[in-house]
Specification:
Number of domains: 1
Strand content: under 5%
Helix content: over 70%
Radius of gyration: 24 Å
Oligomer: single chain
Shape: globular
Distance between the termini: 83 Å
Number of strands: 0
Structural class: mainly alpha
């Protein structure tokens, strides 16, 4: 064996050992804080909805030109599926317009009109979907549309939930109405274009899994799905309930595998993440069933924190 080779082999071995130690350290140390994970699961960027940040807003006197452009695009889209895709894009744009207006102004009437623009666009998605003859199993384009529709309706719910807390008191009910309407339309469109309940469940689970988010994103997704389940038509309820049960099982298994440090982060995350406190409490109680003692104790701590929030919450 040459002198170069004798020197080279121990050096490679040393580098591999050092590299392995660095990787092990990276894998065991937390990469983000609970607050950063909350931001990951609450923040929706325009790019997530495949649109641009709105610049021309409904309070601008030239906003009508933007709507003209939208009308022209619809006019030259002849197939219902193409119109449905455009309507979904316009709904996302109009929701972001409402969000930007809420950041820019406290004028209740302007924000209300923007919320109504969004609501009307959601209704139009349903109207166009009713004209689509094929089911998702018969036309791949319909399946792709439903995948995008599912993801974006979840993201819309996150935006509306945050927006409802930010708007003036007199706009609160209008945003609440918009939230309820978009959830209802989501269920109606899904039921119209998907063939059976099992496929609806599979589609919801797949698209939630593909959405970016934190290590704990299932917790927030469970709370959103609960809201959807309450508002959708009866035919879709069973599919959403089955999806929730599967996601809950996965979250239980994930919690069991978490280190003590990560479980502590989850505890902070569950307390900080936006959402209905009563529904969060229900998720924690469901997680507590059939779970090991150490993890049950941490869940009990979370439950107590949420109960404190419920007791402190003012009655509206």
């Amino acid at each position: 064996m040459s002198k170069c080779l004798k020197f080279f082999l121990p050096t490679v071995g040393l580098l591999l050992i050092v590299g392995g130690l660095v990787l092990a350290q990276q894998e065991t140390s937390p990469t983000v804080t609970s607050s950063e994970e909350v931001i990951l699961d609450e923040t929706v960027q325009p790019s997530d909805l495949e649109v641009s940040e709105p610049t021309l807003l409904p309070d601008n006197p030239f906003y009508f030109l933007k709507n003209w452009g939208r009308s022209i695009r619809l006019f030259f889209s002849f197939r219902p599926i193409d119109k449905a895709k455009l309507r979904l894009k316009f709904a996302s744009e109009k929701l972001l317009e409402a969000r930007k207006l809420a950041e820019k102004t406290r004028n209740s009437e302007i924000i209300k009109r923007a919320a109504e623009n969004y609501q009307r666009e959601i209704d139009k998605i349903k109207a166009v979907a009713d004209k689509i003859k094929e089911k998702a199993t018969e036309n791949p384009e319909v399946g792709k549309f439903l995948d995008k529709f599912t993801k974006q309706q979840i993201l819309h719910e996150k935006i509306l939930e945050k927006l409802q807390e930010q708007v003036p008191e007199e706009v609160f009910e209008k945003i609440k109405e918009a939230r309820e309407r978009h959830i209802q339309r989501f269920g109606e469109v899904m039921q119209k274009l998907e063939e059976n309940k099992e496929r609806i469940r599979e589609r919801i689970e797949k698209n939630l899994q593909e959405l970016k988010g934190s290590k704990f994103k299932e917790f927030k997704n469970l709370e959103i799905l609960k809201k959807i389940e309450e508002k959708v038509p009866e035919g879709a309820k069973q599919a959403i309930r089955a999806a929730r049960e599967n996601i809950l099982t996965r979250l239980k298994e994930k919690l069991e595998r978490m280190s003590t440090t990560t479980q502590e982060r989850f505890k902070d995350y569950a307390e900080k993440i936006r959402g209905d406190a009563t529904e969060k409490l229900e998720i924690i109680q469901n997680l507590q069933s059939e779970i090991r003692t150490r993890t049950r104790e941490r869940l009990e701590d979370i439950k107590e924190k949420i109960l404190e929030k419920i007791e402190r919450k003012p009655v509206k």
